[in-house]
Write a structure and sequence with these properties.
- The protein is mainly alpha-helical.
- It has one domain.
- It has 4 helices and 4 strands, in the order ααββββαα.
- It has a two-stranded antiparallel sheet.
- It is elongated and about 95 Å long.
- The mean pLDDT is 82.
Length: 172
């Protein structure tokens, strides 16, 4: 969950991982369907970004706790310790990108926050989350282009014949 939010303890973590698993299974089916039906290339790329992000987060939550030790801001996790920090389906999604653009303090004259530490762009995010975000935002921005209604021209099969056309003639 974004910014390290948690819910429901161990059961919440299990639910979230199983939800990711269901999303990846559905995503596999849906991607195959839209490719077969020749959807626009842009829509397929966006759906693929969302799928890849979900798959990356699923793999992290399934296996990361088994194959890495606990990590923090000051400690980089080592791979294949004697014991991982969590069991199967209980790992954390790996947070990899951190870009604190400005680290400073609020001016002391500011009400309520004066003198407190300030950090501009403090969220830590991973490539999977960025992939999902880029896919969703691009879909929203370009939805009219991706979901254009194709003009459907009705065609009526015709056949030339030398038969008389009249209200009196019955077709049998």
């Amino acid at each position: 969950m974004a910014w390290g939010w948690e819910f429901g303890g161990s059961w919440g973590k299990m639910f979230l991982t199983l939800f990711r698993l269901a999303a990846v299974i559905f995503g596999t089916w849906y991607l195959a369907k839209i490719v077969r039906q020749h959807y626009s290339r842009g829509f397929i790329v966006c759906a693929s970004l969302i799928y890849a992000g979900a798959l990356g987060n699923l793999l992290d939550s399934m296996f990361y706790g088994l194959i890495f030790e606990e990590s923090s801001y000051s400690h980089i996790a080592k791979i294949f310790p004697e014991k991982g920090y969590a069991g199967f389906l209980h790992g954390r999604v790996v947070d990899m990108l951190y870009f604190p653009i400005i680290k400073s303090h609020y001016p002391s004259w500011m009400p309520l926050v004066g003198g407190e530490e300030f950090e501009f762009f403090s969220p830590i995010f991973n490539i999977a989350d960025a992939s999902i975000s880029i896919g969703v935002i691009t879909l929203l921005v370009f939805q009219k282009r991706f979901f254009k209604k194709r003009e459907h021209h009705e065609t009526h099969p015709t056949m030339e014949t030398s038969s008389e056309v009249s209200d009196k003639v019955q077709v049998g």
